[in-house]
Structures are given as C-alpha cells and as structure tokens.
Specification:
Keywords: Hydrolase. The chain is built from eight helices and eight strands. By secondary structure, it is α/β, with parallel strands linked by helices. It has an eight-stranded mixed β-sheet, sandwiched between helices.
C-alpha cells in the first residue's frame, strides 16, 4: 500500500467551525483494491454527507467524508481504522479542540465504534454496522451511541448489532438502537428515514436545534425497549 493515500472531501461550515462530522463508508473484511470515487460503498455515503451539511452548516459544523485507501478492514493491519485515525488527526490539526461526531455505514460503522476512543469524539452513529460478537465496546465509553439496522439486512447482522448495543449499554453515556422495518443493507428503500436519524443524532449530540421527537423519546425509554425501537 506504499504511496496510497486516503482522501477527504470537506464541506465547509458557515462561519467559525464549532464541530466536525466525519462520515465513514463501508467496505469488506478483506481487500486491497483501491477505493475509487465511483465505488458503491463510498457513493452510498455521499448523499448522507450532503444532507448532513445542509442540516448543520449554519450551526458552524463542518462535514468530512473519508475515502479509504483500500476497501478492506484487513486484520491485523486494520487499514480502515488507520485511515479513520488519520482523518481524525487532520481534524485535530485544522480545528483543535472541537467535538467530533462519527457517522459510519457497514464496515464504516465498525470503524466508527472502534475509533470512538479519540478524545474529541462526542458520539457515534452506526448505520447497519458490522459488529462481530467479539467486537470490543470500550471505545464508546462515555460517548453517545445510535445504532440503526434494517430488519431485512442480509449483509450485516441485526442480531449482532443488538448484542453489541446490549454490551455497550453500560459503557456509553447513552445508547439507542432503531430497527428500520423492511429495509436492507443499502439504505435505499427508506433513505429519508436514515438521513433523518443521522441529522437528528448529530444535532442532538452537539446540543443544537431543532430537536427530533423520535430521538428525544428514545433516550428516555427503558433499556429493553431502547435497543429495539421500530421505525
């Protein structure tokens, strides 16, 4: 992988930057193929990044969309994790001290949950995340966490994300998990639902208006209900 470089698309805040959202795309368990701008896993997150920017830019929030060097998670080197930490370092350099919200889909959801231990991270929004049964939860300690999973996802396991949420409940500052009815892995059948959740969680985590009734109600549910909220 010598000479390869991850890339970041930056959508600027209006006025001084008060926070940054880092958006992470999906991939595969193994893979050394270069992530081109037209790869579907990357393209899937472009409209989410654009919608986020429309929702948060006026509040001084910048949105960054990472494009990994290669498409694989790639144990033991953890290429996707290394790329996310590189992107976080760029945020620290450009905007020292600002809070960061992580938004990731599929493998990107796992990456977000893994790098949430970065001191700037305030919250993680994991969409259809790949969360194996042994995925550690320590990184989300004292972070706000939202998980959303389609009930018809055949690529990543809704049961595994529920198990992860159950284990992370005592570590996270607060956690909610939504089950998106009749939705698969690609988030296309009910795209507005996913986008609304991402925007609402980001604004809520950063303490910005407007509030979202669905999300506000989610935080106050009993734990048993909070991890299986139907949408």
């Amino acid at each position: 992988m010598s000479g390869r470089q991850a890339a970041v698309t930056i959508r600027r805040a209006r006025g001084p930057v008060r926070a940054v959202v880092l958006v992470l795309h999906g991939g595969a368990e193994h893979g050394s193929a270069v992530v081109r701008p037209w790869r579907l896993a990357y393209l899937r997150m472009v409209p989410i990044a654009k919608s986020l920017h429309r929702a948060v830019a006026r509040h001084g929030v910048e949105v960054r969309l990472l494009r990994n060097r290669v498409r694989g998670w790639n144990e033991p080197g953890l290429d996707a994790v290394r790329d996310a930490r590189w992107a976080l370092e760029g945020i620290h350099t450009d905007h020292p001290g600002v809070p960061v919200v992580l938004v990731g889909h599929s493998m990107g959801g796992r990456v977000a949950l893994r790098v949430a231990d970065d001191p700037a991270v305030a919250g993680v929004c994991a969409l259809a995340p790949w969360t194996p049964r042994d995925e550690p939860v320590a990184a989300v300690r004292d972070r706000a966490v939202l998980i959303a999973h389609g009930t018809k996802d055949l690529i990543t396991s809704p049961a595994d994300s529920y198990t992860f949420g159950s284990r992370a409940e005592t570590a996270a500052s607060r956690i909610a998990r939504f089950e998106v009815t009749d939705e698969g892995h690609a988030m296309v059948r009910r795209a507005p639902v996913w986008t609304r959740l991402v925007c609402a969680f980001t604004l809520d985590t950063l303490g910005l208006p407007p509030s979202d009734g669905t999300l506000t109600a989610a935080w106050t549910r009993p734990v048993a209900e909070r991890l299986r909220i139907p949408l």
